[in-house]
Specification:
The protein is of the alpha/beta class and 307 residues long. Helix 1 crosses helix 2, helix 2 packs parallel to helix 14 and helix 8 crosses helix 9. Pfam families: 5_3_exonuc (PF01367), 5_3_exonuc_N (PF02739).
């Protein structure tokens, strides 16, 4: 089933971190000096996305488990450098205090926002892309989600690495031009290349260009590893040795890099609200947290799509 308007599947942590770091705290605060820069910035991003993409459905994905145990069991270094203590992520205190406010505002507006225990927001987004009627537009600044791009199914990534105002509307051709691999092999490419920001070391001596060449010639990681056993596969001796030494790592890193597509999601209604679900609650939140301008812009965007 293909609908004329897209589902916007929003990586909420990606956007609220970006909003927090992009807007000075002193430029967005309450009369008592409480920062609301992340909330204001996030709401303005959502309003802009609604105005420009004109979706008929919208869902925000959350990190119920930002560092899932099953991924850590496979690659213990996964996001280890971002642990504050125990299994708690390093989050600026002034951002952490704003997240509950943001979720209250979204609930008052009627935009579903949820995570699933044991999974990251990426996995919720992957499952939405795999299970919801097309077209689906995933919104994130996380390049790992390029793997979800699927022209045949109608899934695109609206990559906001440079901000929502400078979205890269990614289809497979863009992924191929940007990284030298088709979207379906992006996770394999990433497993070999590594990603220091996620604590993934990659294969020693294999950078982005070499990883892209390997994928282009042999396909995914499983095919590359299988080709190692063929003396006529055409590997340079040094590269063959590096890959052979990393066989165990790649066997474990690939499922870490792959976004889950089969998460059991809670019941939700993705239909874009045409007006706030609870206008009184939204008004109270806007007054308490000095969010009147951002709330109005979001409400106006919703009514504009309805028009």
């Amino acid at each position: 089933m293909v609908t004329a308007q897209p589902l916007l599947a929003v990586d909420a942590p990606s956007l609220y971190f970006r909003a927090f770091h992009g807007i000075p705290e002193k430029a967005a605060q309450t009369a008592a000096g409480e920062p609301v820069n992340a909330v204001r910035g996030f709401l303005d991003m959502i309003a802009q996305l609604i105005r420009t993409r004109r979706p008929d459905r919208l869902v925000c994905a959350l990190d119920a488990s930002w560092r899932p145990a099953w991924r850590v069991a496979l690659v213990p270094s996964y996001k280890k450098h971002r642990v504050a203590h125990g299994d708690v992520e390093v989050v600026p205190p002034n951002l952490e205090r704003q997240i509950p406010i943001l979720l209250e505002v979204l609930a008052a507006v009627g935009i579903p926002a949820f995570g699933v225990d044991g999974y990251e927001a990426d996995d919720v987004l992957g499952t939405l892309a795999a299970t919801q009627p097309a077209p689906v537009e995933v919104v994130s600044g996380d390049r790992d989600l390029f793997q979800l791009v699927d022209d045949e199914r109608g899934t695109r990534l609206l990559y906001c690495g440079r901000g929502v105002a400078k979205l890269e509307d990614a289809d497979n051709a863009l992924v191929l031009a940007k990284y030298g691999v088709p979207a379906r092999w992006y996770a394999d490419f990433a497993a070999m290349r590594g990603d220091p920001s996620d604590g993934l070391p990659g294969v020693a001596g294999v950078g982005e260009k070499t990883a892209a060449r390997l994928v282009s010639r042999y396909g995914g990681v499983e095919s590359i590893l299988a080709a190692l056993d063929d003396p006529d596969a055409g590997f340079a001796p040094g590269l063959r040795a590096k890959l052979a030494d990393s066989r165990e790592y790649l066997d474990k890193a690939l499922p870490v890099c792959r976004v889950a597509l089969d998460v059991k999601l809670p019941s939700f209604d993705p239909a874009l609200p045409r007006s706030p679900k609870d206008a009184d609650a939204l008004l109270a939140l806007a007054e308490r947290w000095n969010l009147a301008g951002s709330a109005r812009r979001l409400v106006d965007a919703l009514s504009g799509v309805a028009a």
